[in-house]
Design brief:
Two copies of one chain form a homodimer.
Chain A: E1 3-10, H1 16-22, H2 24-31, E2 36-44, E3 49-56, H3 59-75, E4 82-88, H4 90-95
Antiparallel strand pairs in A: 1-3, 1-4, 2-3
Chain lengths: ~100, ~100
């Protein structure tokens, strides 16, 4: 069953196009993550937070990612990391145009 | 700029296939929501919460939806509704396979 993760953590930036430059290599690395269907990169410069919403093909690959990405963020000096995991209701999500699979993954 | 919303609220169910039956009409209604690109329906029967992650084409349609959907949920007797809004970093998200648009919307 597809599994969704919401990550949020404090961030003073970069945001927007500056982030797109700074994190391009990281995004390319995440694109190859086992089990990943997609990630949406999220940010709120006013609240000073950043994060991401991830869809994984199953709970095992999602759980592995939470552990690995939390360690990676901590390695960047980031604390107060929130990672919330949900089961996905695939039938209702498909009715609302959600993309739940990716060719070759 | 695409805008993402994370809704979460307490729920004792239905979940899974029972929810898919109970909320089919609501999902079809949400599918026509102005500005909606997609919604992923989320649930956690263990924590007893449900919700959704929504991508909207811009902050105005997202904001309108938060107000309307909060009223709708309250009409169902749901309280303790959390709705968190984020800006989307479209360039980084596209690198990670995210679908950020929908034909005709």
């Amino acid at each position: 069953m597809a599994t969704l993760i919401v990550f949020e953590f404090p961030s003073t930036g970069p945001f927007g196009s500056e982030a797109a430059g700074a994190y391009r290599d990281l995004a390319n690395d995440i694109a190859e993550q086992t089990g990943l269907i997609w990630k949406v990169w999220t940010e709120d410069p006013v609240r000073q937070v950043a994060g991401g919403v991830y869809l994984f093909r199953d709970s095992a690959t999602a759980s592995d990612y939470v552990a690995m990405h939390t360690r990676r963020l901590e390695g960047f000096g980031i604390t107060d990391i929130s990672a919330t995991t949900y089961e996905v209701n695939e039938e209702l999500s498909r009715a609302d145009h959600a993309v739940l699979s990716r060719p070759g993954n």
